[in-house]
From TrEMBL:
Gene3D superfamilies: Immunoglobulins (2.60.40.10). InterPro entries: Ig-like_fold, Ig_E-set, SoxZ_dom. It comes from the Bacteria. SUPFAM superfamilies: E set domains (SSF81296). It comes from Marinobacterium rhizophilum. Signal peptide: none annotated. This is Thiosulfate oxidation carrier complex protein SoxZ. Residues 3-89 form the Sulphur oxidation protein SoxZ domain.
Length: 96
């Protein structure tokens, strides 16, 4: 995972570059029971949830997400996710 952040006028912009295959077994959404994809992504800032997404097999491999929220800068982003095969992951990023 790669995370880039910027702060301007108390608005924090987050760019997430997720490294995940998001692989479909047969190449179509109808086979989503066999697909390996990130199911849920959650981002917390200073303990408060600022972003959540329920993803699907329709997303491309190594997806890029961008979102904004109000914050003063400084602090830690706590990023967590789980995928369709039951694997969990977590990552933290310090905002300067």
């Amino acid at each position: 995972m790669r995370v880039e952040t910027s702060v301007r006028d108390d608005i924090i912009t987050v760019r997430l570059f997720l490294q995940h295959d998001m692989a479909m077994q047969a190449g179509c959404v109808a086979d989503s029971a066999q697909a390996v994809f990130i199911r849920e992504l959650s981002v917390r800032y200073r303990g408060e949830k600022v972003f959540t997404a329920d993803l699907s097999p329709a997303l491309s491999a190594d997806p890029f997400l961008r979102f904004r929220f109000r914050g003063t800068g400084g602090g830690t982003l706590a990023i967590s996710w789980n995928d369709s095969q039951g694997a969990d992951g977590a990552y933290s990023h310090e905002i300067a």
